[in-house]
Write a structure and sequence with these properties.
about 180 residues; alpha/beta; Rossmann fold; two-stranded antiparallel sheet; 7 helices; about 40% helix; globular; binds flavin mononucleotide
């Protein structure tokens, strides 16, 4: 059996989760840019940071899978908004449905973790995107603010780290099934 952990991470929080999981279960973790043959693996754990609803590198990497019938696929998203909030989970999953083939979306076991952000480290494009988004949403009436919007407003221009390795336990249970 050949297993792999793959991650899509721009600023390192998703990478931290992937590498910690790798250490705990002894499966190699590599960035999605370095995957050579995705079809060579039986069990694939994909970690991706959330960027404007998209899961970084996920669709590009997983669309290369030819036959998923004998594979175990676990997808883990890492974002800033509360991953236990039902509305947030719904939004993330609805976006994932668009990014993945139907059979793959239905087969994959999906988990959601919380990452972090450090505005001093963001590149120019991301800083600009966040600033435009912030200006657009900051004066919305309270009832119109989704959890994603609230998380974004609360953390705007700050450094926050919600990484919690204890959340990997459920994923480890799923991998060992
Ligand atoms: C431009 C931009 C867009 C983002 N979009 C989302 C989003 O749609 N939902 C969310 O929960 N977090 C969003 N985030 C927060 C990231 O998902 C969070 O910082 C995550 O920990 C990043 O992972 P990384 O450090 O591995 O790149 C966004 C951050 C940036 C900079």
């Amino acid at each position: 059996m050949s297993n792999i952990i793959i991650y899509g991470s721009k600023y390192g929080t998703t990478k931290k989760y992937a590498e910690e999981l790798s250490k705990r279960i002894g499966i190699k973790a590599i960035p999605f840019e370095k995957v050579e043959d995705i079809n060579a693996y039986d069990k694939i754990v994909y970690f991706g940071g959330l960027y404007a609803g998209g899961v970084l590198g996920m669709s590009k990497t997983l669309k290369k899978l030819n036959d998923i019938s004998n594979k175990t696929i676990i997808i883990v998203t890492v974002g800033l908004a509360d991953p236990t909030d039902k509305e947030n989970i719904n939004n993330i999953r609805n976006n994932m449905k668009i990014q993945l083939k139907k059979a793959l979306f239905e087969k994959a076991k999906i988990f959601h973790l919380r990452g972090g952000i450090d505005y001093s480290k963001l590149n120019f494009t991301h800083k600009t995107m966040m600033s435009l988004l912030y200006k657009k949403v900051k004066n919305l009436p309270e009832e119109k603010k989704t959890v994603e919007v609230k998380a974004m407003i609360d953390t705007y221009n700050k450094k926050v780290d919600f990484v919690d390795f204890s959340c990997l336990d459920n994923i480890i249970d799923e991998i060992r099934k």
